[in-house]
């Protein structure tokens, strides 16, 4: 019976011990807060800049749309008098924006950006470890229409100003990559269309030549049978004229001549519409001084309380 009572916690005695050792608790609190403050002074700071965007409007990619419309009008399977074959606006805008998003989230694109920044800033050596950290500092989050979210890009840097500036540079860098890729796709589509028209022209010429040879052969047979001077004169006219080009052949030759000039170089364009500009952040992402002061202060209080209780026990002994 006495042993169970002896093992019970004496709350009143503990409170008295803590009160007598309050200087240790206060000292632990102060030390914890000071350590938290000192840590934030020397720890690497992280400032997060955020940009949000959506699909561009037609005014941003007008030149590219015009080049696509021109290509579609000159297509082998299009009717020059029809306007229904022009590039669909929505399809073009979606294609450009999807190319932008793919480049934006690409690890290779981020790596090329930081390597270029490293070459521009010769004072900083871009080691593989540093490069991996820089690549991870850029994060892309795809939007979800069902949940009302938009496409978001964030960049973490060591200062508020640099995080905003670097994010703007990355957007401009990605825009250039998109423009280069779109230009390559347009040139490839242009060349493919030229190849198809050249093949079509070669086929139409072979058909016209076969028809011409058949007609000349028929006239010669008639001339040999009848010895008609009129037929012989017709043969001379046909031979001097040569194969007759059909309307489709003339149209394809005109298309080929128009395509041979090639697509014009695209003017710089923006493949997105900004919803939230990457302004310098107001507060840093890490380290968070208030949170660290609270956490380390609590740790200091706990350590101080332990010392106070231990000191009291030693006095009794």
TrEMBL record:
Coiled-coil ranges from the UniProt annotation: none
Transmembrane residue ranges: 24-42, 289-309
Q: Which SUPFAM superfamilies does the record match to this protein? A: Bacterial polysaccharide co-polymerase-like
The terms under GO molecular function for this entry are: protein tyrosine kinase activity
Indicate whether rRNA-binding appears among the record's keywords.
no
Q: By what name is this protein known?
A: Lipopolysaccharide biosynthesis protein WzzE
- Record-annotated Polysaccharide chain length determinant N-terminal domain positions: 7-108
**Annotated Gene Ontology cellular component terms:** plasma membrane
The cross-references to Pfam families, in alphabetical order and at most eight, read: Wzz
């Amino acid at each position: 019976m006495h042993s169970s009572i002896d093992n019970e916690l004496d709350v009143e005695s503990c409170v008295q011990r803590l009160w007598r050792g309050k200087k240790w608790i206060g000292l632990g609190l102060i030390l914890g807060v000071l350590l938290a403050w000192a840590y934030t002074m020397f720890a690497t700071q992280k400032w997060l800049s955020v940009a949000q965007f959506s699909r561009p409007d037609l005014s941003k990619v007008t030149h590219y749309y015009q080049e696509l419309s021109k290509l579609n009008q000159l297509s082998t399977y299009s009717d020059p008098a029809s306007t229904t074959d022009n590039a669909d606006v929505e399809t073009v805008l979606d294609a450009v924006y999807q190319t932008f998003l793919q480049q934006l989230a690409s690890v290779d694109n981020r790596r090329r950006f930081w390597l270029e920044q490293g070459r521009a800033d010769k004072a900083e050596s871009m080691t593989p470890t540093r490069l991996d950290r820089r690549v991870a500092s850029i994060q892309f989050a795809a939007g979800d229409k069902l949940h009302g979210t938009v496409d978001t890009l964030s960049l973490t840097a060591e200062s508020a100003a640099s995080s905003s500036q670097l994010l703007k540079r990355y957007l401009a860098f990605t825009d250039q990559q998109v423009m280069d890729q779109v230009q390559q796709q347009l040139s490839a589509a242009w060349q493919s269309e030229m190849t198809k028209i050249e093949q079509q022209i070669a086929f139409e010429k072979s058909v016209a030549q076969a028809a011409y040879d058949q007609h000349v052969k028929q006239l010669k047979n008639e001339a040999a049978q009848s010895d008609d001077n009129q037929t012989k004169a017709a043969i001379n006219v046909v031979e001097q004229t040569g194969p007759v080009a059909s309307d489709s052949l003339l149209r394809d030759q005109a298309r080929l001549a128009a395509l041979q000039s090639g697509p014009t170089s695209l003017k710089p364009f923006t493949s997105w519409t900004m919803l939230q500009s990457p302004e310098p952040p107001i507060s840093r992402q890490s380290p968070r001084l208030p949170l660290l002061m609270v956490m380390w202060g609590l740790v200091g209080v706990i350590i101080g309380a332990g010392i106070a209780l231990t000191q009291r026990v030693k006095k009794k002994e």
